[in-house]
Amino acid sequence: MSERVEQRHDWSLEEIADLLQSPLMDLLWSAQGVHRAANPGYKVQLASLLSVKTGGCEEDCAYCPQSMHHSSDVTGQPDLEVKAVLDRARIAAEAGADRFCMGWAWREIREGPAFESMLAMVRGVRDLGLEACVTAGMLTDSQAERLAEAGLTAYNHNLDTSPEHYDNIITTRTYQERLETLQKVRQAGVTLCCGGIIGMGESLRDRASMLQVLACLDPHPESVPINALVAVEGTPLETQPTIDPLELVRMVAVARILMPYSRVRLSAGREQLNREAQILCLQAGADSIFYGDSLLTTSNPAVESDRALLAAAGVQASWQERAAA
Ligand code: SAM
Ligand code: DTB
Ligand code: SF4
């Protein structure tokens, strides 16, 4: 058996900033070493996303088309029903997804029928043999416990950016509140999905600082989504220039080195990348993609093109591994 890769929780900002700006070939070499040791066989998990409650959110996250503070085309929609959600989950499972992620455009989870439906959705998704992930804002200890009892695999709550850049992006809740939400999820025994976004006007030190907060969590989040900003019309970040794809490659590579056993998810923004840039991200250590024609409110590459992408890269999706077993 191969040796376990060391997991550290004491990375300094300097070390991370140095990694982020190291020569690309050296960075890829290091990330590959970690990735191949921690993920023998190079498997990639496919996760599908569905927005259960879309739009009309009271938070002011500058990147988000679902905020009621912005003038994007996304308006408040009624919640999807349990059956409609489970029908979509079944389709995702048939297409080869392993994980089904459901989103609510909420500041925090609300008690009442909508929460009961959320629990029923989690149970239903688990019954289909899929991992279930929910992203719905802040929560209480008791809500985290009830989600755990329903079988929730993971709760997604992103840091989004560094503590230093955060106030330029969100004013309606604090970084500390985010960290407390993560703590509650952990306490309930649900795995953490926590990452962020690049391309929101942050500096290299901000990127390093966000990665430092993530890597200093002990244990590391089991899942780390790295998003590139999708600059949606009507949001305050609509005019942000698209990032150089190699910056995303670097971010993925450093996340992989810092958190060897976490799933590093190449998340929003893949439509801005050509096939070769996405393959570089896989090579840098990304071991999951969002799979299906849409993210929450924006589009994602088509299923057929993602199958072709994985085939071109010569990596197996988890379902192919199951089929071959
Ligand atoms: N309301 C919940 C929350 O904020 O935690 C859940 C949904 S929220 C849309 C989930 C995550 O999607 C955000 O934290 C952010 O990282 C990501 N996201 C939202 N809009 C994005 C965009 N335009 N580009 C990239 N990532 C985005
Ligand atoms: C995450 O970090 N990215 C996903 C998932 N977690 C919930 C969401 C991306 C949303 C992109 C913008 C949209 O489609 O609305
Ligand atoms: Fe609301 Fe989440 Fe969008 Fe922020 S990211 S505005 S909390 S839906």
Give an overview in words.
Strands 1, 2, 3, 4, 5, 6, 7, 8, 9 and 10 form a ten-stranded parallel sheet that branches. α8 (245-258) links the parallel β7 and β8 (263-266). α1 packs across α7, α8 runs parallel beside α9 and α9 packs across α10 (303-313). The protein has helices spanning 13-20, 24-38, 82-95, 113-127, 141-150, 175-187, 204-215, 245-258, 275-283, 303-313, 318-324; strands at residues 43-53, 99-104, 131-135, 154-156, 191-193, 196-198, 223-228, 263-266, 288-290, 316-317. The mean pLDDT is 95. With 325 residues, it is α/β, with parallel strands linked by helices. It has eleven helices and ten strands. The longest helix is centred in the N-terminal third of the chain and has 15 residues, at 24-38. Helices cover 39% and strands 14% of the residues. The chain has a single domain (13-320), classed as Aldolase class I (TIM Barrel), CATH 3.20.20.70. Bound molecules: S-adenosylmethionine, 6-(5-methyl-2-OXO-imidazolidin-4-yl)-hexanoic acid and iron/sulfur cluster. 6-(5-methyl-2-OXO-imidazolidin-4-yl)-hexanoic acid binds at residues 49, 65, 101, 103, 135, 156, 158, 195, 225, 227, 230, 267-268, 295-298.
